[in-house]
Amino acid sequence: MRAVRQLTLVTLLMLAASSVTAQDLASFEKLTHLRVLDNGLTVIILERHDAPVFSYAAVVNAGSAQEVPGITGLAHMFEHMAFKGSDRIGTKDWNAERAALAKVEAAYAAYESVRDDVRPDETKVEAARKAWQDAMAEADQYVQNDEFSQVVDRAGGVGMNAFTASDMTAYHFSMPSNRFELWAYLESERFRHPVQRQFYKERDVVFEERRMSVESRPFGRLFEQFTSAAFTAHPYGSPNVGWPSDLHSFSASDADAFFRKYYVPSNIVMAIAGDVNPSEAWPVIEKYFGRLPKAPQPPALRTVEPPQTAERVVTLREPSQPIYMEGYHRPSSTHPDSATYDVISMLLSNGRTSRLYKSLVRDQKIAAAAAGFNGFPGEKYPNLFTIYAVPTPGHTPDETATAIRTEIEKIKSEDIPADELQSVKTRVKAGLIRQLTGNTGLSMQFAIYQTLHGDWRELFREVERIDKVTAADVKRVANTTFTEGNRTVAKLENAPKGGAK
Fold this sequence. Notes:
With 501 residues, this protein is of the alpha+beta class. It contains 19 helices and eleven strands. It is 48% helix and 17% strand. Helix 1 runs antiparallel to helix 16.
């Protein structure tokens, strides 16, 4: 599809609120090619020959929800390590480095054993720690720092990054079309044989990220307490960045085990959007990504969060800006009512036209901000519909809670006017379709929808489902979801320094 057609599609959807028609989907289908390699890897190619570049996204169907006690934060940690290269990239002498890294692991295991003893001998602990650090210093001499990133940069690659979420880990960047084979070599290398070089140094970096985002930020602490209160059994209750003790304990061997279990071809989807000719691309993809060894599909997550039957309340008292949050359990994104939740979210809490903004911020002036987010902290499993408010000076979290509940009760008891519902639908659809205007967004969204829904076409069908949402659907879902027993509350109340926590 050419850029002018895409611009026309987006403009029509935003201005006329029309749905994505079968012909629009058919247009994408003509230019989209999907192949599952013999090893189970799913690859999607979307042709867009507007410029001699392409964007790529790989989504690994594993995130923090796949972690167990003791290794929380490991999915995020492995994302960091995926940029360290392989046995061919990032090393000066792989045979020597491999032997040195084995010594590092043995020294770390010995150090951890004496450190975690019931009655640790500090002399032995210090000696073991020094031996471990000496082993790391020896291994470091074989490292070619940042070689993977440098090769991408020299080849004209841009936007190289990654993220870890509760449901997935994603890698992405863009490159000139004439560097397609180089891209295939580089990406297949880090999925073929990643090396946990400088693992413990990078673990310290990840711990610092946690310190900056959680320990040093009252809002971060509130979010963490809120999530762990809402999910008592499901791993959604653990932070993506990991618990502090785990970040001081898991090992490079743990990371290798995580990779072997979850980074298997059948658990990965790759999407390429841009100036790529499929007939020329498939042999290159087969040559490099076909090298990845076939392995069993990881087992499905067993734990299901039990129904919540009583309100849960978390209160933090610190010398900080107050904030109020409340969340309600809702089904996963594959549930038939998922589109209705999107409409309710936009109706209540998205932008200056939303009901919460107009009531709490514009009219009552009791909040500086009032909004929300759907699908928190992930979407693959049942999750939370979340609302928050930031009180203005002189007002309290409890005042904002009362105002929020008032707006929720209106949703539950009153029919939404037809013009307001249509306006909300238009904005929800426009937000979805806006993601289809560039190679980067297309590759990422196609990979995500193929991973979570089993078919990239669900991105378009989601727009169709939104069109079918009725006022009766909104009222029904609201009455089912927004109940006291299904609610988790988190409040950050301002208190003098040194006050009660």
